[in-house]
């Protein structure tokens, strides 16, 4: 059969590629897997109990209502301070981005995305025929400059995308910067898409932004969310789009074609987590923050010459010392020779500048110590 060039010219997920190298490992030493930012710990007991209860019920395998379960929309709306009518549950945050991008953009349109970018965002835009316009970020903070963003807007720009905390860098964009870019988006009549997958893992207890305080936010702001990391239910596939009704109506049409609705059992799990797992959620955040502090401590010594540039949420953005080698080769050597699996920075940017993404959050404290020792021996 003939396959479309549209998909063949796009590289596969770097996580799939990196994990493919595991088949070549000869070592029996435990692998330190820093490749994927999916929780490796079980969900809260109250959520697990609800999952079992729903699975055993007569409606457990049935479709959820197309707009999403009212209980989830109301619970999440109360948490972030928006009306439930502005929330559309999706099968994960990746799907939330895809249906929003397709509802906003036509082939040939443009979306501004800061570098480094999340690879699935870039892949979807290419698949949809939308041109990703790459926006440089500050080389020390990895935060985009509002003036630079404004300069990149053309008559083909349909949206500006921000991910905060960032994937792959972990960098959190300050609320005032988000506000400035939102004002630019409103003034230029383009959408601001804010991917807030790791919102609850920020180190600050202050609100991530004040966009929802503006009564006109629905005219230009779109917020994307995931319950996967916060509630440790990535396999249940549930996220959400937060937006005005006109966009949600169009996005719902696309959702109906690709998934009908977010899985009922995932929506039930997320609702239970929002309403009844507050203490458990706080404990997980505290544990991740403790791991982050220890990760920073270990990497401050630049073991093996690996330099931590920025970190936050689940991630460390690290420059490797082997500038005479390709980053892909360095990653392969780390997994085959040192039993450390990470993702090359080339998955998140067009050039090979020696970057690596370390998803440290699934390592125990003693494993972070072991990571430092293995990196030290990798020279």
Quick tags:
single chain, 379 residues, alpha/beta, Aspartate Aminotransferase, domain 1, Aspartate Aminotransferase, domain 2, seven-stranded mixed beta sheet, four-stranded antiparallel beta sheet, 14 helices, globular
N→C terminal distance? 47 Å
- Sheet with the most strands: spatial strand order: 2-8-7-6-5-3-4
Q: What is the CATH C level class of the largest domain, in words?
A: Alpha Beta
Q: What does the radius of gyration come to?
A: 21 Å
Structurally, the number of domains stands at 2
The CATH topology of the largest domain comes to: Aspartate Aminotransferase, domain 2
Summed up, the helix count is 14
Helix fraction?
A: 40-55%
Shape: globular
* Backbone structural class: alpha/beta
Q: What is the averaged pLDDT score?
A: 93
Order of helices and strands: HHEHHEHEHEHEHEEHEHHHEEHEEEH
Q: Which residues form runs of ≥5 with pLDDT under 50? A: none
SSE map:
Layout: H1 5-8, H2 14-20, E1 32-33, H3 45-55, H4 70-80, E2 87-90, H5 93-104, E3 110-114, H6 119-127, E4 131-135, H7 146-152, E5 157-163, H8 175-188, E6 191-195, E7 221-226, H9 228-231, E8 239-242, H10 245-258, H11 264-276, H12 278-299, E9 307-312, E10 315-319, H13 327-338, E11 340-341, E12 343-344, E13 355-359, H14 365-376
């Amino acid at each position: 059969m003939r396959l479309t060039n549209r998909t063949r010219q796009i590289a596969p997920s770097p996580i799939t590629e990196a994990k493919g190298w595991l088949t070549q490992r000869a070592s029996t030493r435990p692998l330190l897997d820093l490749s994927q930012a999916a929780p490796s710990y079980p969900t809260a007991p109250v959520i697990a109990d609800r999952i079992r209860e729903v699975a055993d019920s007569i409606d457990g395998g049935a479709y959820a209502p197309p707009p999403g379960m009212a209980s989830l929309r109301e619970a999440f709306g109360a948490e972030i301070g928006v009306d439930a009518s502005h929330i559309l549950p999706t099968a994960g945050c990746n799907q939330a981005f895809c249906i929003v991008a397709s509802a906003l953009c036509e082939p040939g349109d443009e979306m501004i995305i800061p570098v480094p970018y999340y690879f699935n965002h870039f892949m979807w835009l290419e698949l949809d025929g939308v041109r990703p316009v790459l926006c440089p970020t500050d080389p020390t903070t990895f935060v985009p400059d509002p003036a630079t963003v404004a300069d990149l807007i053309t008559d083909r720009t349909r949206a500006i995308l921000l991910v905060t905390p960032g994937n792959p860098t972990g960098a959190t964009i300050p609320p005032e910067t988000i506000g400035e870019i939102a004002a630019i988006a409103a003034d230029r009549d383009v959408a601001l898409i804010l991917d807030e997958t790791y919102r609850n893992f920020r180190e600050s207890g202050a609100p991530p932004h004040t966009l929802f305080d503006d009564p006109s936010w629905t005219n230009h702001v779109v917020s994307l969310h995931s319950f996967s990391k916060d509630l440790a239910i990535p396999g249940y596939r549930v996220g959400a789009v937060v937006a005005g009704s006109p966009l949600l109506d169009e996005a719902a049409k696309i959702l109906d074609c690709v998934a009908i609705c977010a899985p009922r059992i995932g929506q039930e799990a997320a609702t239970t987590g929002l309403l009844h797992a507050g203490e458990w959620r706080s404990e997980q955040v505290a544990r991740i923050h403790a791991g982050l502090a220890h990760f920073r401590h270990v990497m401050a010594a630049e073991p093996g010459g690996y330099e931590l540039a920025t970190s936050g949420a689940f991630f460390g953005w690290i420059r490797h010392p082997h500038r005479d080698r390709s980053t892909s080769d360095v990653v392969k050597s780390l997994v085959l020779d040192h039993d450390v699996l990470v993702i090359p920075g080339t998955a998140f940017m067009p050039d090979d500048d020696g970057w690596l993404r370390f998803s440290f959050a699934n390592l125990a404290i003693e494993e972070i110590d072991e990571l430092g020792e293995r990196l030290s021996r990798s020279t």
